[in-house]
Amino acid sequence: MSETVVKRECDRFRPIYYAAASGDFNPIHIDKEMGQMAGLPGNILHGMCTMAWAVEAAIDALGGDPGDLARVKVRFSKPVKIDDTVTLTLKREGKRVEIAAVNQDGEDVLKNAVAEGR
Which of 30, 40, 71, 76 is the most exposed place for a label (fewest CB within 10 A)? Predict the structure, then answer.
């Protein structure tokens, strides 16, 4: 079994970049006050961006060819906030990659994350 650790930072521009790329301009992602009105600590990163970080790391762990990725399963467990650092720990065994994703406080932001290669 091989293990890889990848860190990603959510700077204040990341939700804006992701909104532009995805077309998802939900105000809780790009406006601090709207996030707070929704009961969040401020604006938060798109869950799909967090998942994309995990998928990118899994593809690299599987050899770097996106075409080799067969399936991905994740459960979103905690929002990624502005200025959070997400640590992705990937454990690969054969064509299966288990992914742990935690913030700087050790809280899971993704749970039960698994990627499988072809």
Answer: 71
Q: Give the count of domains, the chain.
A: 1
Strand 96-102 versus strand 85-93 pairing type? antiparallel
CA dist., res. 104 & res. 58, Å (int)? 20
Looking at residue 1, its pLDDT comes to 86
Backbone φ/ψ region at 100: left (φ over 0), alpha (ψ -120 to 50), beta: beta
Q: Which residue in the block uniquely carries the two structure tokens 């860190």? A: 7
Element (H or E) spanning 20, and its range? helix 14-22
pLDDT at 37: 98
Q: What's the pLDDT score for residue 84?
A: 98
- What is the layout of strands, in order, in the sheet containing 85-93? 2-9, 85-93, 96-102, 108-117, 69-76
Asked whether 75 and 113 are in contact (CB, 8 A), the reply is yes
CATH number at residue 90: 3.10.129.10
Q: Classify 42 in phi/psi space as left (phi over 0), alpha (psi -120 to 50) or beta.
A: left
